[in-house]
Amino acid sequence: MEPFLLLIGVALLVVAAVFFVRMYNDFVQRRLRTDGTWAQIDVQLKRRHDLVPNLVAAVKGYMGFEQAVLTRVTETRANAVAAGARGPAEAATAEGALTGALRSLFAVVENYPGLKASENVGALQGQLATTENQIGAARDGYNAAVRDYNTAIATFPAVLMAGTMGFTSRQFFETELEARETPSVQLR
Prior knowledge:
The structure is a single chain. By secondary structure, this protein is mainly alpha-helical. The protein has a single domain (27-180), classed as LemA-like domain (de novo design (two linked rop proteins), Up-down Bundle). It has helices at 2-60, 67-83, 88-109, 113-116, 119-154, 159-162. It is rod-shaped and about 95 Å long. The termini are far apart. The model has no long low-confidence stretch (mean pLDDT 88).
């Protein structure tokens, strides 16, 4: 009878080991999926950050006395670039401020007929609108991946092991409702 009990004990250890290996691998896959979807947001944010200086340069000649608006856009862009390295929560706050600054810029653009008619400004505004839409889509994918990952490490029995294996919850990329709207202006 002892060999039978030993066999059952070994079988239970193998089942437990397989269970924990599968759990660990699931956590790793979910974390990698989350990191991959964050990279998609990061690419779109960098594209947005690259468009802003071009837009500022395009409107600068027309808006010489609106320097405060241009300075605010430039400063919030710099803050947004720096915030990206500090995680989704800070990036979202900084990107919301940049969206607000761009709205101010586009509101001022409305007062300049020559600027509104500029093909260059129109093209940049179109690229920015497209990028904003891509950021929104990437944000949705990232937040879904974070939700799935956070749920996986917080449910029983995984919650008992996730922390000891180094898996911690991730932050969502949430922007204020106002900042989620695409900055727009009618340029023609």
